[in-house]
What we know:
Layout: E1 3-7, H1 14-28, E2 33-36, E3 46-47, H2 50-56, E4 63-67, H3 82-92, E5 99-105, E6 121-136, E7 139-157, E8 165-172, H4 190-215, E9 218-219, E10 222-223
Parallel strand pairs: 1-5, 1-6, 2-3, 2-4, 4-5
Antiparallel strand pairs: 6-7, 7-8, 9-10
Amino acid sequence: MVTIAYLGDLGSGKTTKCTRDIILTKLMHPNKKLFLNYHLYNYDYTSLDMMDLYLNHPDERDMIIGIDEIYTTMDCRISSSYRNRIESYFIAMTRKAKADLFLTMQYETFVDCRLSPFIKVKYIMEAIPIKKSVVINGIEYSYNVNHPNIFKCTLIDERNSNNPIIKEFHFDGLRWFTEFNTDEYIKPPEDVLRTMEIKQMKDKITYAKLTEQLKNGVTDGRKKPKAKKED
């Protein structure tokens, strides 16, 4: 059982490489169940809520779990939240669940700090720039664009701490773009969204009350003192 992370900037190919590895793992182990938080076109999978999986399906085994943009569910800014704690328990026990875990993120600092120690295999993804030029009013201007489907990949495998593997190679994602929705927003779990909505609603109510108080000359819950008349 292994936890693999794919890190990189926007458009660096991390979800594409992650999808490729998930599909190949599924083909090698067809009996494993797929749990994903994003849409895969050509394979049966179950929509993933990691906390629900851990709490309400304790007998589930032999899984392939794919989490795109994991900070949407394990945000470092809410590290002490109930959800973050439960999900970190699950990640710590993926061996017991016989689960292969595939995660994408832009930066490790975006994610709950309890995740990093369990990541022994990383792919650092980078877009490959291509130089182009355009002529405007007789003047040639050069600029860079990212290659549409070739990405630079750096593998860091620390499962054997005495002999870590570091390898660089190029990855062609063209074959895998049609396997998933490359433009899909990854939304936080429903309970996280509800918490945000409640907080937003409370902020609006508080703002409305403060606006009304200021309008009526009230500050800090006290009426504004009347100005003294001059003799």
